[in-house]
Amino acid sequence: MIELAGLTKRYGDKVAVNNLTFTVRPGIVTGFLGPNGAGKSTTMRMMLGLDRPTAGDVRIDGRHYDQLRDPLKYIGALLDAKAVHGGRSAFNHLLCLAQSNGIPRARVHEVLDTVGLTAVARKKAKGFSLGMGQRLGIAGALLGDPQILMFDEPVNGLDPEGIHWIRNLMKSLAAQGRTVFVSSHLMSEMALTADHLVVIGQGRLLADTSMADFIAQNSRSYVRIRTPQEDRLAEVLRQNGMTVVHNGSGTLEVDGGKSERIGELAARHEVVLHELSPQQASLEEAFMQLTAESVEYHAHSEAPPEQPPQGWGQSWRKEG
Fold this sequence. Notes:
Elements: E1 2-11, E2 14-24, E3 29-33, H1 40-47, E4 55-60, E5 75-78, H2 90-100, H3 105-115, H4 130-142, E6 148-152, H5 160-175, E7 179-183, H6 187-193, E8 196-201, E9 204-210, H7 211-217, E10 221-226, H8 230-239, E11 243-248, E12 251-255, H9 259-268, E13 275-280, H10 283-291, H11 312-319
Parallel strand pairs: 3-7, 3-8, 5-6, 6-7
Antiparallel strand pairs: 1-2, 1-4, 8-9, 10-12, 10-13, 11-12
Region (Disordered): 297-320
Protein name: ABC transporter ATP-binding protein
Keywords: ATP-binding, Nucleotide-binding, Transport
C-alpha cells in the first residue's frame, strides 16, 4: 500500500505538487492521470525518495522509502527505461540491481524470461530498441518480486503484442493481491487496464474514484435510438419524463431513461426500433472534460495556408 498525506513539493515560487492525499490500495490496478506538467512524475519520485517533499508525507507499507531494507523487495518501479548503463548487458544490469538488494542470481534469469529478453540477455543495453529498453526496465521492477509496483508509461515503445502482454501482466499482479500503480497518457490502454483512477491537475487532486464512476461523473450518458416512427416515440418518451433530442434521419438521443425502459415503452406502443444502444463517453473524453481548466501547455492549430489569388493558377499555366 502507498499512502500520501498532504504531499507538497515547491521549486521556488512554483508549486509542483499541492497537498496531495490519497491511498493506492492492493488488489487493483490504480491509474495515475493528469495533463503534462500536472506533477505526476514529481509525485512518483517523492514516493521513491528521489525527491524530498516540501511538506507532507508518503509511506510505503507504513514506512518511508529510505527506511526500507532491500527496497526492491518491497517496491519495484519503472520511471525511466533509459536509466541503464549502456555498456552493460541486460543480464549484468539486472545482476547489479540484484546484488545490491540481496536477490539471488537465479531471479535474474526468471525476470529476463518473464519479459521475453532471454535471447538478448548478453547483449549491451545501448543497442536495445525503445521497446526492448522498456522490457528491461519492467524486468528491473519485477526483480525483487515486490508487493508494490509502479510503472510510468510502461507501454512506451512496445508493439501490439507487448502492449497486450504488459496489460495482462499488470492485471495478473493485481489479482495476486499486489499494489499496482501506473501512469500513462495512453487513455485507450488505461481504460482497458485500470480499475481505479487518481487524477491530478496543476499539482492538485481532481479525482480519486473507480473507473466507472469517473466516466459517469465527468461525461454525458444517453441512449441512441433509430426508428421510422421518430415523432411518435419521442412523444411517448417525453410523457414518461425523458429528454429527447432529434438528430434527424430517424435518430433520437434520450436522456433520463435506461435502454430497458425505453424498449418496453416502444413495445407497448408498437413502435418499431432499428437501434437501441446506450452511449457513454470514453475515458479520454471524460478526462478532457475534467482537466480542461488544469492544462498548462495548450497547443493551437496553425491557420490554413492562404489561397493564391483568383486566377493565379490559370496565369501560371499560361506562362509555363
